Amino acid sequence: MPRILIVVCVGLLSIRYVAGEEPRTTAYSEPLLTSRDRSFWAFLPPGQPTPPIPGEHPIDAFLLTRLRETGIADFAPPASPETLRRRLSITLTGLPPEGDASDFAGDLEALLSSPHYGERWAQHWLDLARFAETDGFEFDAVRPDAWRYRDWVVSALNADLPYDRFVAMQIAGDLLDPGSAESAAATGFLLSGPDMPDLNLQEERRHLILNGITGSIGSVFLGITLECAECHDHKTDPVSQADFYRLRAIFEDFALPGKKRSLPVAYASGERFAAHLYFRGDFRRPGPALSPAVPAVLSGAGFKPEHPRLDLASEITRPDHPLTSRVIVNRVWQHHFGTGLVPSSSDFGKLGDRPTHPELLDWLTVEFVRHGWSLKWLHREIISSRAWQQSSLRTEDDPDWEKRLSLDPDDALLSRRPRLRLDGETVRDFMLSISGRLNPAAGGPGVRPPLPPEVASTLQKNQWPVTEDRLQQDRRSLYLFARRNLRYPLFEVLDRPDANQSCARRHVSTTAPQALTLLNDPFIHDMADATAANLAGLERKEAISRAYQRILGRSPTGEESRRMNAFLDIGTMHDLVLALFNVNEFLYLD
Prior knowledge:
The chain folds into three domains: 41-79 and 86-95 and 327-421, no CATH class; 162-316, no CATH class; 424-589, no CATH class. It has 26 helices and eight strands. The protein has helices at 35-38, 58-70, 81-93, 104-113, 115-129, 147-158, 163-176, 181-186, 202-222, 241-249, 308-316, 324-337, 358-370, 375-383, 386-389, 401-407, 424-434, 453-456, 470-473, 489-493, 512-520, 522-535, 540-552, 558-567, 573-581, 584-587, and strands at 4-9, 12-17, 254-255, 267-268, 276-278, 286-289, 420-421, 588-589.
C-alpha cells in the first residue's frame, strides 16, 4: 500500500502521493454519449425564428411578445436625448460625449469608428482572458511583453476583425500568419493566466498551465465549464474526463515560457509530448493515452484534427457551431443591458441559466454570423432598438410604471432600461476626460501612477515603481499596469476582479469604502481641482451650468442652480465638483 499525504486547503481535500512511490492506476471507462445529451438546447445549432411582430425592430418584436404575454403593453418611453447621448458614449467608448449634439445615428457611427471603442471593449475581453502583466502567486514576477496581447485585442476590435477570425487568431495566430509578431501576440490569450515559473517540478507547472488553457477555451469561447472534468467526468454536462484531456492534447506541442519571458505567446516547441488522461487530475497519475479531439457532444461531422490548433480554430468557428457565436452574442447583450439573455454567460450547461428569450438569442446569433461575425453590426442592431433606448427612470408620460415594477420586478423582461453602475476604469477615465487631463496615447507597456500612501507603504520598492512622466500617469485606465496580486485601489473598491480566473460578469457591490474613496482619495481631489480650474473665471451661473454639463451630461434644473449658487456662498468650486462626482447620476448609467 502506498503511503499518502492528506492536504487540506480552503475546503478542498486532495490526495497527494509521497515522492518516490509509484501510484496505483485504475482503469477508466468513458460514459456513453446519448441522444438526450445531444438534444440539450445549448448543444443544438441555433434555429432561425421569424420576428413575431411585423413592422417592429426584430429585437423589439421578440421582447414585446413576452412583455404582452405578461400583461405589459409596451416598453417604457424613450430616454431624453441627453441621457441617450451619455449612454451611447459611455457604452461604446467609456468616455463622456464630446462636442455638440448631432443626430443619434451619426453619433453611433462616430463612436464605433473611434479608437476609444476598442479600448473600452478590450477591457471586457481582458476580464475573460485573465490578462495581467505579472505571473501571480508568491513572486508575482513581471511579464515584460504581456501588453502586446492587450494591444492586439484593442487593434482587432477597432478594425472589427470578424469574431470567428478573432477567436482563431487567439488559438493559432502564429500558425495562421507565420512570421508575424503581431499575429503571434494574439496567442497571448492562451498564456494569460497565472503561472509559477519557479515551481520545482516543471512537469507540474506544465500540467497546471495546460489545464488552465483547456478550461479557458471552454469557458471563454464555448461557455461551458470544461474545468469540471479535469479530475472526473462532468457531473451534469455530457463532457467526460477523456473529453477534457483530448482537448488539452491539442496543446501538448507547446513550449512553455522560461522564467524570463520574451514574448507572451504560445508556440510550437518541436517536441511532441504524450497526451494522457490523468486520474483525479494528478499529473503523477497518467492514465490511458489520448489523441487530440474536441468534446464529442460538440464535434462536427468527421472532425479529425491533423494540425491540432489550426483544426480546433476551424472547428469551433464553423458557422453552425452551437455555442461559439451564441456565447459572444450573449456577452455583448450582457454589456449593453447588465444581464445576458443567458444570465450565466460563461455557463450554457445544465447547471447554468436557461435563456430568457431563446428565440431572440437564436435570431441574433444567426444574423450575427450572416453579417460576417461583425461585432460592430451587433452593436448597431442592439442600440437601434427601442428596448435599448427606453428610459430607466419614471417619466411623466408613463402611466404603466407601477405595472412594470409589479409584473417585471427584476426587469428580466426589459420592461424598462436597467441602471448600470460604472466600473472603476470608467470612473477614472471619465474624471480625467472632463478635467482636461486625459492623455489619449495608446498602446505600450503599462504605466504606474502614484498609489495612495497607505497602500504604497506596504509594498517593496520594485513592486510598483511609479512612472515619472506625469503625462503618462494620466493615460486611460486600460493602460495602467495590471499587476495580478495588486489591483489599483480605485478599481478594486469598485469591484474590479482579480486576474486569476476568467471573469464573465463583474460583481457590483455597494459598500462604505466606495463612498469614502470617492470623497477622500487623492486622485479624486486632484481631478476635482483640475476640473474646477477649468471653470475659473466664468460667471457663477455659467460655471455651475458647465460643471453639470461636463459631469452629468445635462444642464442643471432651476432648483439645482439656486441650490448650487447658495452652496458657493460658503463653499468652493472644488467642493461643488467633488459633490457631483459623488452623486448617483454620475456613478450610474441611466
